[in-house]
Write a structure and sequence with these properties.
The relative contact order is 0.09. The protein has 3 domains: 245 residues, 4-Layer Sandwich (Glutamine Phosphoribosylpyrophosphate, subunit 1, domain 1); 206 residues, Glucose-6-phosphate isomerase like protein, domain 1 (Rossmann fold, 3-Layer(aba) Sandwich); 159 residues, Glucose-6-phosphate isomerase like protein, domain 1 (Rossmann fold). It is 35% helix and 23% strand. Helix 4 crosses helix 5 and helix 15 packs parallel to helix 19. The strands form 4 sheets. Strands 3-2-4-1-10-9-11-15 form an 8-stranded antiparallel sheet, with helices on one face. It has a 7-stranded antiparallel sheet with strand order 5-6-7-8-12-13-14. It has a 5-stranded parallel sheet with strand order 17-16-18-19-20, sandwiched between helices. It is built from 19 helices and 25 strands. The protein has 625 residues and is α/β, with parallel strands linked by helices. The structure holds 5-amino-5-deoxy-1-O-phosphono-D-mannitol. 5-amino-5-deoxy-1-O-phosphono-D-mannitol binds next to helix 9.
């Protein structure tokens, strides 16, 4: 959370920083600020709220400075007020710092600095950093900004990324990474740092991701990389495969809507990448091609999946698929719980971390914990880690030896949509691969599933086309509703959870997802004419059960909205409103049934006039615990 950006070069820094921050606003938007060095002074401008507030404040005072740092904040320590906004400075206003992360020992450092006469004006953890750097520049042996920052970071505990400038070192920008992402961009006579690549991709595609414990010194002449001990490291940038137009709205009102419409393309890209093109026969080799080493699968007895939020919902669908198709017992855990209360150690266990950003602190920590607690054990207990991520260059990508890259392309809307569908595709491929190799399903069954999967993009397009006006119409009716219930069973229970999460996070309407059969054990008491119920009912294993559970809700006066295949007459009679999806096998239905729920949430939020892409209190990349 929080986005940081830095620039040094030959152009005016302010606009470059502002446009970089625009691309990072998904990481937090409680306040924003930039600091530049011009005519021997640090000019720092900060504003509460979104970036446009900062822009208006900057218009009359922007300098032609060619060095600067910027920040967009997701508040952790201290309210989202201007005095807590970054950049933070020392008392003499010579050093400016932006930070992403949390400094865990900031209270102790603050006390020590106070004893030395430092006064603080914010409630943030970050403010200790410029004070500490200034103190080191004044008192210790540090003879350069680089050295002072290096000494300062050795006093800091926690996970953080920093960018630092100083009025006394106008040709130097120092960037630090310690368990929070930071990339360095290499242009022609200009250099950048940023929390994420979209902030710099319109300037350069040559990037280098700093590793934990690394410091970069950016000057107009180039970039030097050091470790925290001060040793110089030799590293080369790589070329990014990211097109700047991928981070534009392309005519859609919001990124979220654009991303919902990109989903058929995501499914097509996944089919192309994960499945062999010759589908006439599924004889060896496996029809699935994930490029994973055989040792990951051998003698597998158990799978544990750790994830958060929408990725956790995708993992629940994954559990269903792996257990039903490949017969491997699979448990799904909230990463934030699992890291402190893991299951007893089991042998031959695959641990999967699912995170679209690859930066979710809890998911990364759960994987580290799992790796560490297994490392001194017998071979069968050794960690087998697999990551599923949309950002292979992320911290997750660098931590796990094996990965399934999801192919959603960059997702800007804070509410995950196309990355969820991409994660589902990864789980279909994984479950089918395991089923094939373990011979737990008949070849004909697997062949049919794979062929049916190839029909999904077109079915999704049909579903999207039919849903737009239906969901818009319902949004009009439900814009002022206070509570929603989403019901599903079996493989569609996670979709009920996902539908409720989408509605909560962008429309701020209270919503709960339940397994339909659980309603009668308590939650049914919530129902009356003011609480609409959205039920996902797809012919298959639990179809009649979901319809009965829906009838029970209807008998309590709830208005019933059915997400169900087009042709079903029985469902049409039960539901007050229908959100029909194309006919689909139950096993593949989540990829389609989630679409109307995403659109419903989108249209309700848009109707309520809310900021769909940047809902309050949220951030796209949750890099704090
Ligand atoms: O990047 P991750 O997949 O690890 O993110 C996990 C959650 O923070 C994320 O899914 C969150 O719940 C989204 N806002 C859901 O739309």
């Amino acid at each position: 959370m929080c986005g940081i950006v830095g620039y040094i070069g030959t152009q005016a820094a302010t606009e470059i920083l502002l446009s970089g921050l625009e691309k990072l606003e998904y990481r937090g938007y409680d306040s924003a600020g930039i600091a530049t060095v011009w005519e021997g002074e640090v000019n720092c401008v900060r504003a509460k709220g979104k970036l446009h507030n900062l822009r208006s404040k900057l218009e009359p005072v922007a300098t032609p400075a060619q060095i600067g740092i910027g920040h967009t904040r997701w508040a952790t320590h201290g309210k989202p007020e201007e005095h807590n906004a970054h950049p933070h400075m020392d008392m003499a206003m010579r050093v400016a710092v932006v930070q992403n992360g949390i400094i865990e020992n900031y209270r102790d450092l603050r006390e020590e600095l106070k004893q030395k006469g430092h006064q603080f004006i914010s409630e943030t953890d970050t403010e200790v950093i410029p004070h500490l750097i200034a103190e080191l520049l004044k008192t210790s042996s540090s003879s350069s900004l680089l050295e002072a920052v290096r000494q300062a970071v050795n006093h800091l505990e926690g996970a953080f990324a920093l960018a630092v400038i100083s009025a006394d070192y106008p040709d130097e920008l120092i960037a630090v990474r310690q368990q929070a992402p930071l990339v360095i961009g290499f242009g022609q006579g200009e250099f950048f740092c940023a929390s994420d690549t979209p902030a710099i991709v319109s300037h350069t595609r040559a990037v280098l991701s700093l590793e934990n414990g690394e410091i970069a010194r950016l000057t107009p002449l180039g970039v030097e990389i050091y470790n925290f001990a001060g040793d110089r490291l030799r590293k080369q940038p790589r070329m990014l495969n990211l097109n700047p137009t991928m981070v534009e709205k392309q005519g859609f009102k919001h990124f979220m809507l654009k991303e919902i419409y990109e989903q058929p393309g995501v499914v097509r890209a996944s089919l192309e990448a994960y499945f062999n093109s010759d589908r006439s026969s599924i004889d060896t080799p496996s029809p699935v091609n994930l490029g994973l080493p055989p040792k990951l699968y051998s003698d597998l007895e158990q799978i544990h999946i750790v994830a958060c939020g929408t990725s956790w919902h995708a993992a629940l669908v994954g559990k269903y698929l792996i257990e039903q198709l490949a017969g491997i017992s699979t448990q799904v855990h909230y990463a934030s719980e699992y890291r402190y209360a893991p299951s007893p150690l089991t042998p031959n266990t695959l641990i999967i971390g699912v995170t679209q950003s690859g930066e979710t602190a809890d998911t990364l920590a759960a994987l580290v914990m799992e790796k560490e607690r297994r490392q001194d054990k017998e071979p069968q207990y050794q960690a087998r880690l697999l990551g599923i991520t949309n950002r292979p260059e992320s911290s997750l990508g660098r931590m796990v030896p094996d990965m399934i890259n999801t192919l959603a392309g960059i997702e800007i809307g804070v509410a995950a949509t196309k990355t969820f569908v991409a994660q589902l595709m990864a789980f279909y491929a994984l479950a089918l691969d395991l089923a094939y190799l373990r011979q737990t399903a008949a070849k004909e069954t697997l062949e049919k599933i794979i062929n049916d999967l190839h029909q999904i993009p077109q079915k999704m397009e049909t579903t999207l086309a039919s849903q737009e006006s239906l969901t818009e119409h319902l949004a009009h009716e439900f814009a002022d509703t206070q509570d929603f219930i989403f019901l599903g069973r079996g493989i569609n229970y996670p979709i009920a959870l996902e539908g409720a999460l989408k509605l909560k996070e962008i429309s701020y309407i209270h919503a709960e997802g339940y397994p339909a059969g659980e309603m009668k054990h308590g939650p049914i008491a919530l129902l009356d004419a003011k609480v609409p119920v959205v039920a996902i009912a797809v012919p298959g294993n639990v179809y009649e059960k979901v319809l009965s559970n829906s009838q029970e809700a209807k008998a309590r006066d709830s208005r019933l909205i059915g997400v169900t295949p087009v042709k079903d007459g029985e469902a049409a009679e039960i539901f007050n409103d229908l959100l029909p999806v194309s006919d689909v096998d139950e096993l593949l239905s989540p990829i389609l049934t989630v679409v109307p729920l995403q659109l419903l949430a989108y249209h309700i939020a848009a109707r309520r006039g809310l900021d769909v892409d940047q809902p309050r209190n949220l951030a796209k990349s949750v890099t704090v615990e």
